[in-house]
Amino acid sequence: MSIAEAGEFGLIARVVARLETGPTTLLGPGDDSAIVAAPDGRIVASTDVLVEGRHFRRDWSSPADIGHRAAAANLADIAAMGAVPTALLVALCAPVDMEAAWAEDLAGGLSAEASLVGASVVGGDMSSSPTLTVAVTALGDLAGQAPVLRSGAQPGDIVALAGRVGHAAAGYTVLSRGFRTPKALVEAYRRPQVPYAAGPAAARAGATAMIDVSDGLLQDLGHIAKASVVGVDVHTERFEIPGQMRDAATALGVDPLQWLLAGGDDHALAATFPAGVPLPEGWRQIGVVHDGTGVTVDKKPWTGPLGWDHFR
Amino acid sequence: MSIAEAGEFGLIARVVARLETGPTTLLGPGDDSAIVAAPDGRIVASTDVLVEGRHFRRDWSSPADIGHRAAAANLADIAAMGAVPTALLVALCAPVDMEAAWAEDLAGGLSAEASLVGASVVGGDMSSSPTLTVAVTALGDLAGQAPVLRSGAQPGDIVALAGRVGHAAAGYTVLSRGFRTPKALVEAYRRPQVPYAAGPAAARAGATAMIDVSDGLLQDLGHIAKASVVGVDVHTERFEIPGQMRDAATALGVDPLQWLLAGGDDHALAATFPAGVPLPEGWRQIGVVHDGTGVTVDKKPWTGPLGWDHFR
C-alpha cells in the first residue's frame, strides 16, 4: 500500500502505532501539539534535516537505519549541550508512491533510537513531496546544569573526545565505491553509536566547551576555536586506527587520517576541560587548547578538506 | 549571490542577521542547540512542514509571505492548546541555485510573524535539496493553564470560532484561476491573520476542546467530534459572507460556503465551551455539540469536500 492509498490520516495512524511513549511525554501525537515535561524550566532544542541523495540513499540504508540516523543526529545536539534528550518531532516529506511500510519502519527506527535515552517521538507532520526529506527537532532537559556552550574553552584546557570518529566516513567511502564490506564500517555509517551519556557527564565534570562532531572533527573543533577565541592543536598520536579501517583505507587508496579528522556522521562529542580535571568515563584526550587561533594538527596546518558544507 | 556561493555557514550568518531575539530566548542560533525558557515546567511543541508546489508557490507569494505563513501555521497549533508561543526552529531545504536573498527574506517573514506573539526563531538547519521545503517546529508555554485538548467537548456545549475562515481558500482559488484580485482575499492566502490571543483566552474561559482550523472547518471539527465522541452541528446562518468573497464566488462559479466550511489556511481557532459561559473577546458561536457522531451542517450531512488531505 502506497502512502497515497493510505491517506494522510491513515498513514499517521500506522506510523503512530510504531512509536513508544516515554516518561517525559505528557501528551503524545494526535492533538494540535504535543506536551513534554520540562522540569528544569528551560528547554534545549535543535533541528537537523536529512534529504535523500544528500544525507542518505535508500539503496544504502534501510528505513529503520535512516530513522536511527535522523534521530541520532538530533539527539547528539542535545547531548552536546550537556542535556538529556526528552522528545523528538518529525516532519516527513515523501513521494506519493512510497510504500506506507517504509514510513512505518522509519518511525520504528526513530523511536528505537530515542528510546536509548528515554526520549520519545511526540509529534510530527507529513506531506507529499518529490524529494524524500526527514526534518527532526529534538528537545532536552538540562536537569539543573549550566549548558556547555562552544564559547567557553580556555588556553591551557585539554581537548577530549567521546565516541568514535572516522567510522561513518569510512563506511560512506566503502559504499560509494560500490562495496558492502567491511560490515563494521558500513554499519557505523548506517547507525551511528552516539555517546549520549558522555554529554551530561562532561557538563557535570566541568567541561568548558562542547560540540557534536557532525561535520568533521577539525571543522567542528574550528567552531569551538572561533567561538572561544582560542587555538586548538590536535595530536594524531592519540588516535588509534582500527585494523579494519586501516585495511579499507589501503584498499581504497585513502589516508585514514582524513576519515578520522574530517569525516562526519559518527556524532562523537568533542569537549574541552580544564587541565588536571579527571575526564569522565568514555572521554579521552586528543589535543590541547592554546592562546592562538584556528585548528592545527600536530602543530601544523591541515591541508586536506576540513569537513562538510551542505551547499557545496 | 546563490546559496551555493554563500556556502552553508555564510548563508546561516546572513539569515541569522535577519532574526529578532525575544525575551524567552535564553540562547539563540549558533551553538549545537538553542535554549528557551519553559517557566511552566511543561513545553508545548508542534511541527508543520511546507513544500513548494504543495503548500506554496514562489510566483504567488513573496519569501516574506511564505515565512509569515510557515510561522503562522505552527504558532496557531500552539495557541490551539491554550498556550503562548515562545520559539520557532526552522529547517530550510533549498535548491543550490536559489538566491541567498530569498532565504534571508524568508527568515525575515518567519521572525516578524513570531514577533507578533513575543516568540523568536531560535535555531534551525539548512540543506540543499531539489525541492524547496520549510519545516518549522514551534514551542510554547502553558503559563500554568491546563491544555485544551480535542477530546473534551460535551453534548450541550456550544461551538465557537475565533478568526476568519474561507478567506485564504478564496484567495487560493483566485490565484489558481490566474487572477491577482480581490487583493484582500489574495493577501489572506499569503499572510493569514491568526487570532493567537484567542487560544489562551479560551483556555482561561473554560473551553472544553479546541483545534487550529488548518485543513477546513468541517474536517477539523470532525477531529473534535471523533476525539470527544460527540456530534457537532454547524449553523450556516451564523456565518457572514463578506461582499468581496460573495462577488468573487459568483465570478468564479464557486459556492462560497465551500470556502467557509472546507477551506483551510486561515488558521482560525475552533473551540467548544459549556453553554452559558460568556465567550471571550474574538469568539462567536457557530454551532452546537450534541450526543451523536460526526459533523452536520444545519442538521444535514455535508455533501461537498470536507477539507484537505496532504497525500491525495
TrEMBL record, chains A, B:
Catalysed reactions, semicolon-separated: thiamine phosphate + ATP = thiamine diphosphate + ADP
Binding, Mg(2+) 1: T47, D48, D125
Record: residues binding substrate: H55, D265, W308
Residue stretches making up the PurM-like N-terminal domain: 30-140
Binding residues annotated for Mg(2+) 5, in chain numbering: D215
Binding positions (Mg(2+) 3): D32, D77, D212
Coiled coil: none
Gene3D superfamilies: PurM-like C-terminal domain, PurM-like, N-terminal domain
Single GO term (MF): kinase activity
Binding site for Mg(2+) 2: D48, D77
Tagged with keyword Kinase: yes
Binding of Mg(2+) 4, residues: D32, S46, D77
Highest taxon above the source species: Bacteria
E.C. number: 2.7.4.16
Pfam family, one: AIRS
Pathway membership, UniProt: Cofactor biosynthesis; thiamine diphosphate biosynthesis; thiamine diphosphate from thiamine phosphate: step 1/1
Keyword terms: ATP-binding, Kinase, Magnesium, Metal-binding, Nucleotide-binding, Thiamine biosynthesis, Transferase
List of residues binding ATP: G124, D125, R150, S214
Functional summary from the UniProt entry: Catalyzes the ATP-dependent phosphorylation of thiamine-monophosphate (TMP) to form thiamine-pyrophosphate (TPP), the active form of vitamin B1.
Recorded family membership: Belongs to the thiamine-monophosphate kinase family.
NCBIfam families: PRK05731.1-4 (NF004351), thiL (TIGR01379)
Additional notes on this entry: Reaction mechanism of ThiL seems to utilize a direct, inline transfer of the gamma-phosphate of ATP to TMP rather than a phosphorylated enzyme intermediate.
Protein's name according to its UniProt entry: Thiamine-monophosphate kinase
Organism: Paractinoplanes deccanensis
